[in-house]
């Protein structure tokens, strides 16, 4: 993710104009999204796409339409409801008070149905009359296109609208690189106003009757130069998984999330058969190393195909050389892939713009997470021949790990050598994402605590894969892991009045960055900590200093730099909390399960307030003081790993741990959390499995692969 997020002015239907002076990232809170990667449409909750802010129809990081406003007899309808649907579909209902009999009750109802296509959108406008007389009115659409690049929109730019030309029954705009946007109407409009960018129909509706109109907007012209992503193959979707529980929030969260995740699937132009998940709407509809890997890892209970597609897509772009400008290194997995270089003209800590090349490798953890995803996919039953094909890139990942540890003080560290890339390269990648308890921003090179946990687990998991497939090198990896754990134990632990805990990082001077953060929860289950150390981490996670009641704060409330509406210094990220929940479930102790249960309740509470479309992040206010989670103004929604948190909750409630190479499926259900009774549609190897959870943690399984043993218990 990028680090240039800042609190912007509102851009909703009644929002005031942005103040002059410094540009702001446009607000996303309150906007409705419909999407089918790599296309999306953002509108107000009434369905109107008004100029300004982030609203618009985007395809492949271009804004094809910057305005799509409907009017009836020159006035906008009065909105009633908006339904975010799931994935590609939205619908909006409104009434037209300015048409029909002059009585208090409206008699003309408009239903606006929107469906995003992979290269544009379709909208239908259905008018229903409840008047006793024929109704006559003018339906008008006002349209505009600026062909703005996504990075410019994100930086708060306001590009000039392009000139439209009449094109048969619609309008057309031409932009850079030979791209066009073409709008067609059905039935043909009575008036096409190219100079004004308008389409108009003279409409008559019989008493009690209905009429429908529609428009389609599509990317046309020549293929955009350098396009790197494509829609997932048509006719495919994520496997359907459902959960039944006493608490209905669990099933609703899972259902909405899976619909959104299915619409976030992409492939690259050069590998159309390998599907992965885009990171999120609207800014990150492309391949992201860390985000795509984490999302695929969290969704392994749905099968291994997404994991394998993600692994292959990233392996095809694995680093082969050293390049300070791109951050590329031998064996490294990239951070993000774009069609063209991007510049974000907001903040990079000291006011310098962030400039990223099309293939950017500024991430310290994606390489380690790639190896972990391969190992976990193998444990979930991925075809061994396909796993073996990926062992060479895995060994290059582990070679990068080894060289990183050797050249930087015995830990995996990062520093931006380019001067224009991400200053922080862990998942908290904003410029102030890593700070001391007193609020000082830590100076790179930085060694993040959670990255050392990933490194330890990657070394051990890589050794297991090498042994399983008869390859040498496992002993050296295990030695590296043990030495890393010893160094971590000696260097990372700090104390305060409440006892010991791991520091967030080591800074450039090797000093522990002593802030208390959610990062420490990522260490659970990696093997880096011993049982006593894990218990200390569990105890800290349970405190209200970190647990907001709606999930874990990224930075403890006791820190000087705490801000509940900061990007990484006090806000709550659903994926972050979900990763910690999974780690707590792996610990298996009673205290760990109690903390996991509390965090699960917090996530479900937040999901309920966000209509089960979990945002990228939200405010870290205390739930007892603010009973509704506070929206973060510029939060992406949906976000792949936030939606995937729903699957992590389900698998953690089950205590699900497949080990197909050993022919075992381990489950250890949590009692009394949400009253989980069944989960259907899980994928274990090539089989579809259902699990029934009874009183006292009794589990029954249907559809298990032949010869697979079900092991129930901690």
Number of domains: 2
* Radius of gyration computed on alpha carbons: 26 Å
What is the CATH architecture annotation of the largest domain? Alpha/alpha barrel
What portion of residues belong to β-strands? 25-35%
Task: Kindly list the characteristics that best describe this protein.
714 residues; alpha+beta; Beta-galactosidase, Chain A, domain 5; eight-stranded antiparallel sheet; four-stranded antiparallel sheet; disordered N terminus
Task: Describe this structure as you would to a colleague.
The protein is an alpha+beta fold. The chain has two domains: 32-225, Beta-galactosidase, Chain A, domain 5 (Distorted Sandwich), CATH 2.70.98; 230-697, Alpha/alpha barrel (Glycosyltransferase). The chain has 13 helices and 35 strands. Strand 19 (265-268) and strand 20 form a beta hairpin. The two termini are 36 Å apart.
